[in-house]
Specification:
Shape of chain B: globular
Radius of gyration of chain A: 23 Å
Number of helices of chain A: 8
Number of domains of chain B: 1
Number of strands of chain A: 21
CATH class of chain B: Mainly Alpha
Distance between the termini of chain B: 47 Å
Radius of gyration of chain B: 23 Å
CATH topology of chain B: MetI-like fold
Number of helices of chain B: 12
Order of helices and strands of chain A: EEEHEEEHHHHEHEHEEEEEEEEEEEHEE
Order of helices and strands of chain B: HHHHHHHHHHHH
Structural class of chain A: alpha+beta
Largest sheet of chain A: 6 strands, mixed
Largest interface: A-B, 28 and 19 residues
Strand content of chain B: under 5%
Shape of chain A: globular
Helix content of chain B: over 70%
Structural class of chain B: mainly alpha
Oligomer: heterodimer
Helix content of chain A: 10-25%
Largest sheet of chain B: none
Chain lengths: ~350, ~250
């Protein structure tokens, strides 16, 4: 069996005594694309900083290619690179920003060619951009130059923290294409934190869902946050904007978040028994999960988007397409609370 | 010139003698400044040379000591950092006459360093001016490093830098802030009078700087000459800032 490129054991990380991340065990396979999803403050960026050896975990161990690593480890520092969320360049020209990492590696041969190649990968013409100072770029161009600086290093692992969050659609597309080319051409392992679920499900081999610093699922679940109220039926839940009742089992506290796994979708309202809850909703998005070949639907019930993985045959059978009203079913006794 | 001024005054319905005097000083000063510089007045050039020389000594030594100390103060977290920072910030406001007094006390013949013979010399003034500039360089360099974007560290480390490379790259990235601090210190050194007067003694051809010459000319009632020397000082400061500005654009 191949050694995983990353292995995390009993990792805990805190800032000022406040725990922000707790992962018992996690492995990432070589050349995989791994997605991290979760709300703001869930620990995605912290996990990326730890994997990028920017910070040392408060407790626990990170193994890279089977060897224990930490910030400045010689075994890993030239193999891992990370693109932070907000575009940032050093106070020097575009050329010097992109060539910085190459110079650190004393990778002196044909630096100009390597910089030009990296810039063209992200859709920037070297003759127009190489001499520009750091302040003469738009936000999207800055992020693309920052990505070019990472791609020029031909890394084994590229960590991307919401790489398309603060750029326009055209820049986002170029960034997505460039990162995927790095994986195809160099076999780079990509770990991507993003709110763009559709993109992650299209490209990723695995998607991990983070919430309050813990990995609790593969990202297909729907999380619904409190506060919860007693409904007229005496059960706990919420009244949705279309007046449907979203019922849940008894929450541990009013602010707890419910993790709901949708069991089935259907064209017609299914029969229900004791613990079954059925809601009607409108399909708002349908996308392909690249690895499984399954389709991934987002169904709006009231204002809440439910995420559901659906087999291709089911989509055909129930003629599911965006805009269509369908029924989703979940069980109260299968709701998890976090 | 007098005729021109008289004409201007006669045109005013409300004659203001104070304004007239000030205008006259400035006009005279401008003319004398050009005259002094273009005619190669030896006394003026001696004061200019003494100013440039002594300020270069002091700013050079304070940058050599101050930048590494300021960078370390801003970069590293250690016990006692905050009290040290407060002391440095306080020393940034040291009065020049007080420094002059202390340095004089040390360098005078009866003082602990009296045998070195630096009293009433340019190196003696430079010692005092270094004490003046050092806290400014340390304090503003530390501020420049502390105010660096936190993303810089992530960027440098994510490119594979080791500890030494991270340290050097952070220093280079904070160069504009450090440069601004150095210019502020240079300005303070160039324009101070207290140290130059007390430690240098304002000796003609030896320790007379532009600022002490201005003080002397004003005492003599030669206000025009004082303004002229002030303008010369301004011209030196302009040349220094222009050079720094060109350097900033280049790097």
């Amino acid at each position: 069996m191949d050694t995983p490129i990353y292995e995390i054991r009993s990792l805990k990380h805190s800032y000022g005594g406040q725990p922000v991340l707790s992962i018992d065990h996690l492995t990432v396979k070589q050349a995989n694309i791994v997605g991290l999803v979760g709300p703001n403050g869930s620990g995605k960026s912290t996990l990326l900083r730890l994997l990028g050896l920017i910070e040392r975990p408060t407790r626990g161990e990170i193994f890279f290619n089977g060897r224990r690593v930490q910030p400045f480890s010689d075994e890993a520092r030239f193999l891992i690179t990370m693109l932070p969320q907000e575009p940032f360049l050093m106070k020097r020209s575009v050329f010097n920003n992109v060539s910085y990492g190459l110079k650190l590696r004393r990778n002196g041969r044909n630096i100009v060619g390597k910089v030009n190649d990296a810039l063209s990968l992200v859709g920037l013409a070297s003759e127009d951009f190489a001499r520009r100072p750091w302040y003469a770029l738009s936000g999207g161009e800055t992020q693309r130059v920052a990505l070019a600086a990472r791609l020029a290093l031909k890394p084994k692992v590229l960590l991307l923290d919401e790489p398309t969050a603060s750029v326009d659609a055209a820049s986002a597309q170029l960034i997505k294409e460039a990162t995927l080319r790095a994986r195809q051409e160099l076999g780079t392992t990509l770990i991507v934190a993003s709110h763009d679920w559709q993109w992650l499900y299209e490209i990723c081999d695995e998607v991990f869902h983070l919430f309050k610093g813990k990995i609790f699922g593969k990202g297909r679940e729907t999380i619904i946050f409190g506060p919860w109220q007693r409904l007229k039926t005496g059960k706990w839940g919420k009244i949705l904007s279309d007046n449907q009742q979203l019922q849940v089992s008894s929450p541990p506290n009013q602010e707890a978040a419910a993790v709901i796994d949708i069991l089935s979708v259907s064209h017609d309202r299914p029969p229900t028994s004791g613990e079954d809850i059925v809601l009607s909703g409108t399909v708002s998005r349908l996308s392909l999960e690249r690895k499984t070949g399954r389709l991934f639907a987002t169904i709006l019930t009231g204002d809440f988007p439910f995420n559901v993985g659906i087999a291709f045959e089911q989509v055909k059978k129930h003629t599911i397409f965006p805009g269509k009203t369908i029924f989703i079913r979940y069980r109260l006794d299968q709701i998890k609370w976090i | 010139m007098r005729k021109c001024s008289d004409y201007l005054v006669s045109q005013q319905s409300h004659f203001n003698p104070a304004l007239y005097i000030v205008m006259n000083f400035l006009l005279e000063g401008f003319l004398q400044a050009f005259n002094l510089l273009l005619s190669g007045n030896a006394e003026t050039y001696s004061a200019v040379w003494a100013t440039v020389k002594v300020s270069s000594y002091s700013i050079g030594s304070s940058l050599l000591m101050g930048i590494p100390l300021g960078f370390c103060l801003g970069y590293f977290d250690f016990a006692g950092k905050k009290p040290i920072r407060t002391i440095v910030d306080t020393l940034m406001a040291l009065p020049t006459v007080f420094i002059g007094l202390v340095v004089y006390a040390f360098l005078t013949h009866r003082g602990p360093l009296g045998n070195i013979g630096l009293l009433f010399t340019l190196p003696g003034i430079a010692i005092g001016q270094t004490i003046l500039a050092l806290p400014i360089v340390i304090g503003l360099s530390a501020t420049a490093v502390e105010s660096m974007d936190k993303k810089l560290r992530i960027t440098i480390m994510s490119m594979g830098a080791n500890r030494r490379q991270l340290f050097l790259s952070t220093l280079w990235e904070s160069r504009h802030g450090i440069l601004a601090g150095s210019i502020a210190a240079y300005g303070r050194v160039m324009t101070e009078v207290g140290i130059s007067m007390m430690v240098g003694g304002n000796i003609k051809w030896y320790t007379r700087t532009v600022t002490t010459a201005i003080a002397l000319e004003t005492n003599k009632g030669q206000f025009g000459m004082g303004v002229a020397l002030g303008l010369v000082l301004l011209a030196i400061a302009f040349c220094v800032n222009l050079s720094v500005s060109l350097l900033r654009r280049r790097y």
